[in-house]
Amino acid sequence: MQDFDVLNMGRSGIDLYSNDVGAPFEQITNFAAYVGGSPLNICVSARRLGLKTALLTAVGNDPVGDFILHFLNNEGIETGYIPRKPGRRTSAVILGIEPPDKFPLVYYRENCADIALTIDDVLAAPVARSRVLQFAGTNLSLEPSRSATQFAAELARANGVTVVLDVDFRPDQWHDVRAFGVQIRATLRLADIVIGTEDEINAAMLTSPAQMSLTHSQVSDTHVQGDTEESVRAILRMGPEALILKTGSRGSRIYLKSGEVIEAPGYPVDVYNILGAGDAFGGGFLYGYVHDWGWRKSARLGNACGAIVVTKHGCANFMPTMAEVEDFVSTRGGLDG
User: Fold this and answer.
1) Over the stretch 149-171, which tens digit does the pLDDT of each residue have?
2) CATH number of this structure's domain 4-329
3) Helix (H) or strand (E) holding 75
4) How far apart are CA 140 and CA 181, in angstroms?
């Protein structure tokens, strides 16, 4: 029996977003406090749309952990599988907002709690009692989270649970971008569905001599160039049945193992803050997937959720409900358009 539609696994933290929109980072005077972390954001997105979700993350014995758990409980998300990690801190992110294309982001994840998730934490969670296990690439950056995540994916596959990998490339969480690629490629055999942007897909598949010679700072400061189509084909050869490529305002594209490519057009809007849009997409896509909507309509719902969130100030706190999505798409061609 499946107790949950989706179990999301990975990072969580407090997000401090600049209230001085447009101001350079050094001139920010105050911040708004939200919750964040890619798997947490996706979990909230899916829950607000109507799925039954649980979150497998970890927080410290600190007030920030209390802050996150309070928010999640109010959202109706199952928090019974979120351990406190003694001696660890709940993580944090600080973000500047300079539309349309500058959003400086600083992570505080040294000694953070969620990267200390263990195999025992996975065994205590409802992996086999969920329809979908979703996790983020950042989970793989350090032990014990790396092996715990791979174990969770193995356990899910053994129990017929769909495994969804959001590539979630965060350069400053890795000592070397090539190490990121190694870990993603080692985990692809356990994934049924992969979700990522062009930069993330190319970073995962750094294989050419020119790419391999890039320094970590070069990748951290620039977009990751590559043959995205070839990267997609290489990923699908490693096991996943589908890869969902997020393409911003253009929407998304679904590549299937069979060779079929499905276009899901986006919903252009004026961008206020891009952070969290991809996670909103993830929650929307998972809602459609769980309800057997098919690839295109599921991705269209994800596109709509992402488009709504880029017009907002934050991430998880601004994920739309289904009623809000229906109102949004009603004048934009609907979800089947």
Assistant:
1) 999 999 999 999 999 999 999 99
2) 3.40.1190.20
3) helix 63-75
4) 10
